[in-house]
Amino acid sequence: MRYTTICSVMPISSLKHTTKRLRTGGTVFILNTGAVITPEAEAMLQALHSRSTGGIKAHLKVLAEKGSDKFMSSYYVGYGHKSIGDCGTITIFVEGVSMLAAKAIQDWKLYSGQEASTRYIDFSKQVFVDPVGTRASNAILEKWRRFYLKSQEPLKEHLRKRFPKEESEKETIYEKAIAARAFDIMRGFLPSGASTNLAWHTNLRQVADELMLLRHHPLTEVQDIAETLTKALDVAFPSSFGHEKFETTEAYNKFWMNNAYYYSEKATDTVKILDDSIDKKLLSSYKGILKKRPFKTELPKYLAECGTLQFGFLLDFGSFRDIQRHRAVTQRMPLVTTKYGFAKWYLESLPVNVRTEAKKLLKMQEASIKKLKTTKEIAQYYIAMGFQLPNRVTGDLPALVYLVELRATRFVHPTLQKKASQMAAILEKRFGKYGLKLHLDSDPGRFDSGRGKHDIIKK
Ligand SMILES: Cc1cc2nc3c(=O)[nH]c(=O)nc-3n(C[C@H](O)[C@H](O)[C@H](O)COP(=O)(O)OP(=O)(O)OC[C@H]3O[C@@H](n4cnc5c(N)ncnc54)[C@H](O)[C@@H]3O)c2cc1C
Q: Is 262 in the pocket of ligand 1 (CB under 6 A)?
C-alpha cells in the first residue's frame, strides 16, 4: 500500500519541523510534511510549466536533476515573480498567543486555517498573556480566571433547568450541548489576552506579504511573532524568503498600521445600513438567478459586480472573532475597549446570584484596568471578550448571503446569530423584490442539543 511505503521511508516521528520560541512563551512551528516534492519544488514546477510546452514530465526530470533551491532564489525572490510564490503551500502552527494576536494573523482576506474554539474547550488552564507584567495587571487576569472557573458548575445546573433534557435525547450529547452553552456564556468573561492556538495554511507569497504588515503591528506581541516567524521561514525555506525590504514601503506600512489600523467609529446595538451601493438596475437583470438559488448553494460570484452593502452594529469581541473569519466581506479590526458596555446576553444568561457577582466584577475590573495607566492597545489584553465593539461589514450580495445563512442559525453563538438574523431581515426586505430568497433557520434562537454533536473528536 502506498501509505505504508511512504511511512517506511520517512516515519512521522523523524520529520524535522522548524520550531522557534516566542518572547511570550508561545511558539511558531512550521510543519515539514516529509513530501518528496516540497512546496518550493511545486512552485518551481508550475513556473517552468508556464515557460515551455515540454509538459510536466520534462520539468520533473529537471527537478530530479537540479532541485528547486537555485530556481526559487533567483526567479521568485530575485526577479520578484510574486505569483510563483502562490504555487507552494505551507502550514504554520502558532501556539500560546493572545486572542488579539490570533485575530491579527487572521486579518487577511486569504487566511486559511483553524483556531482553538472557546465554544468547546475549557480555557481556564490557558496562559493569559500579560504585557504589563505587574502584580496589578496579573490580578486582573486572575480575577477573570477565577470567575470563569467557579461559575461554570452553577451555570450548567441553571442551564439544565432552563433547557431540560427531552426523553429522546442521548445523555452524553445533551451534556455536551449544555457544556457548550456554558462555554458560550463564560467566554464573555475571558480576557482578550487569553492565549490560544491557531493553524495557518498559506502559501510562500501570502505569508511574506502578510509579514510585511505584521512586523509593524501596534502590538509588540504581534511584531515578535512576525520577527520569529521570519527567522523560522528562513530556516525552513531558505530559497524562498529574504526578499529585499524597500524603505518607502516599510515606512508607509508602519505609518498606517500605527495610525489607522483599529476601527473605533460609533455604532448602534441594532444592525443599521451605513451604505448601499448596489446597482438595482443591474441587479434586476439577475432576478431569475436570485430566485432559483436552492438551499446550501452560493450565488454566482459575478453578482459582486452589482456593488456592495455596508452594515454597522455593535458586537462583542467574542463574536467578532467568529464573524471576522468571513473573508469574502471586508471588516476592520476593532480596538477592544469597555466604552460600549458589556453585551447583555452574557449577563442575562447567568443565574441570578452569579449575575449579581458578574456585575460587581465588571465594575471592579474596569476600574482596575483604568488604574494600569497603560496604552489603549495594551489595555485590550485585560478587557473581557463580552464587551461590545463597533463593527462594520462591507460585502457584495454573494458574500453577505453566505454569511447570514451560515450565521443566522441556532448552532451559532447567540450574540452573532442575532446580528446575522437582523442583517438577513434587511437583505430580504431590500432585495426580495429583485428575487433574493434566503434559506434561513426558522427558529434560530432555539437551544438545540444537536450542538453537542458538533465537537471535532478523534475517532
Ligand atoms: C458553527 C461554527 C463553528 C465554527 N468553529 C470553528 C472553529 O472551531 N475553529 C475555526 O477556526 N473556525 C471555526 N468556524 C469558522 C469557519 O471555519 C469559517 O472560517 C467561517 O465561518 C467563515 O466561513 P467560510 O470560510 O466558509 O467562508 P467565507 O470566508 O465567508 O467565504 C464565503 C465564500 O466566499 C469564498 N471566498 C472567501 N474569500 C473570498 C474572497 N476574498 N473573494 C471572493 N470569495 C471569497 C469562500 O470560498 C466561500 O465560498 C466555525 C464556523 C461555524 C459556523
A: no
| Closest approach atom of ligand 1 to CA 113 | 11
d(CA 453, CA 21): 35
Q: Looking at ligand 1, which atom is closest to the CA of residue 119?
A: 8
**Cα(454) to centroid of ligand 1, in Å?**
16
This prediction has a pTM of 0.95
Enter the C-alpha cell of residue 290: 436570485
What's the half-sphere exposure (Cβ side, CA atoms, 13 Å) at 212? 19
Confidence at residue 5, expressed as pLDDT on a 0 to 100 scale? 44
**pLDDT, tens only, 121-152:** 888 889 999 999 999 999 999 999 999 999 99
Phi, psi of 107 (to 5 degrees): -80, 65
For residue 382, give the amino acid letter. Y
Query: Is residue 161 included in any domain, yes or no?
Result: yes
155 within domain boundaries: yes
Give the CATH number for residue 317.
Answer: 3.30.70.3180
- Residue 302 near ligand 1, beta carbon < 6 Å: no
CA–centroid distance, 325 to ligand 1, in Å, is: 6
Residue 284, H or E segment: helix 280-284
Q: Return phi, psi of residue 448, to 5°.
A: -120, 120
∠ CA(77), CA(82), CA(83), 5° rounding? 135
**Is the per-residue pLDDT at 6 higher than 70?**
no
- What is the identity of the amino acid at 235? V
How confident is the model over 423-438, as a mean pLDDT? 98
Residues near 284 by beta carbon (within 8 Å), at least 6 away in sequence: 434
- Cell numbers given for 212: 510585511
HSE (side-chain half, CA atoms, 13 Å) at 415: 32
- The alpha carbon of 398 and the centre of ligand 1 are apart by a number of angstroms equal to 13
Please state the rounded mean pLDDT for residues 250-264.
97
Both 317 and 444 in one domain: the answer is: yes
Mean pLDDT of all residues in 314-325: 98
